[in-house]
Amino acid sequence: NRLTGSPLRISSVVAYFDGIHAKDPSTFRRHNYQFIGNHSDTANATGSCPDGSYAIRLFGIDGVVLQDNTQPFPKSRCMHLLDAAKLRNARVTGNVALNAQSIAKRYYKSANVCERNNYIGRRLTRQRHQVVSGCR
Questions:
Q1: Dihedral, 72, 76, 81, 84 alpha carbons, nearest 10
Q2: Quick one: 40 exposed, middle or buried, by C-beta within 10 A (0-12, 13-18, 19+)?
Q3: What residues does 66 pair with on adjacent strands?
Q4: Other C-beta atoms lying within 10 Å of the C-beta of residue 123
Q5: Per-residue pLDDT tens for 37-90?
Q6: Is the Cβ–Cβ distance between 103 and 127 less than 8 Å?
Q7: How does pLDDT run across 109-127, given as a tens digit for each residue?
Q8: Closest Cα to residue 102, out of 136, 45, 51, 37?
Q9: Which of 68, 69, 90, 95 could form a disulfide with 64 if both were Cys (CB 3.0 to 4.6 A apart)?
Q10: What are the DSSP E strand ranges found in 71-110?
Q11: How far apart are the C-alpha atoms of 9 and 72, rounded to whole Å?
Q12: 25 phi/psi in degrees, rounded to 5
């Protein structure tokens, strides 16, 4: 998707957050979300330093692919592409977040998450990958 004049903004959270256990697949009710190849030309401008905010928020999903997306952010806003909690089997690869502080703000109580080959910053640089449980 080409998002012209609109930022990439996704929020998918679950009502009964406490009942989800990242290492127990039977506790998940939402599965297999994929966000691939979305490109925005418009800065996402919520949040401020030092805590910052995010463009994408995903909570309580088993099976997430966040791949090859592009989202610019305003300078000096401490923004992140993703805020994640209680994800299982997630792959976050090949994304570009211009002016971002990091790709992920957090992976709170998540399992089997792999983040690699993402680019952040004013001068886009490859972010050192985060691994919650392992990249294969």
A1: -160
A2: buried
A3: 35, 92
A4: 8
A5: 999 999 987 767 777 789 999 999 999 999 999 999 988 778 999 999 999 999
A6: yes
A7: 999 999 999 999 887 878 7
A8: 51
A9: 90
A10: 80-85, 88-93, 96-98, 102-108
A11: 12
A12: -60, -25
How far separated are the first and last CA of the chain, in Å rounded?
28
Cα angle: 111, vertex 30, 112; to 5 degrees = 15
- Only one residue has tokens 């506790």, namely 27
**Residue 11, burial from CB neighbour count under 10 angstroms (0-12, 13-18, 19+):** exposed
The amino acid at residue 132 is: V
Q: Cα(54)–Cα(80) distance, rounded to whole angstroms?
A: 5
